[in-house]
Amino acid sequence: MDRDEILELSRKENQNRDLAELDVEVRAGNLGARVGAAVCCLVSALFIALTGMPTFSPWIIYCSIFGTKYAVRYRGLRRKDDLIFCVLFFVLGLVALVFFVLRLAGIVG
Which pLDDT tens digit goes with each residue over 23-45? Predict the structure, then answer.
């Protein structure tokens, strides 16, 4: 392989995206995840303070986002820890969904 072929393969692999751009996107995603967790905590704490009951809806959304993130990572990288986090987040999201539906049905608090 000569230099031009290697560069062409690299462009195809990175979809003509700059490595600095990819790094910024990764950092933005990580910061967005932290902000999302903080907002879920804030909304949950505010809801508990005002109603005396926990809220589950922000956690359903948060867990589904992260379950999907780790599912995609596992599919691409085949790392065992990504699979564990994927299952964990989907189970937590499912538990929150069950409590959310039970509250809507009037069965739980």
Answer: 888 899 899 999 999 999 999 99
C-alpha to C-alpha distance for 16 and 67, rounded to whole angstroms:
28
Calpha distance 103→59 (Å, rounded): 15
CA–CA separation, 99 vs 8, rounded Å? 52
Q: How many CB atoms lie within 10 A of CB 4?
A: 8
d(CA 109, CA 102): 9
Spatial CA neighbour of 84 closest among 96, 70, 94: 70
| Alpha-carbon torsion angle 13, 87, 103, 101, nearest 10 | 70
Residue owning tokens 């303070």: 49
- State the pTM of this model: 0.73
Contacts of 96 (CB under 8 A, 6+ apart): 56, 57, 59, 60, 63
DSSP state of 1: -
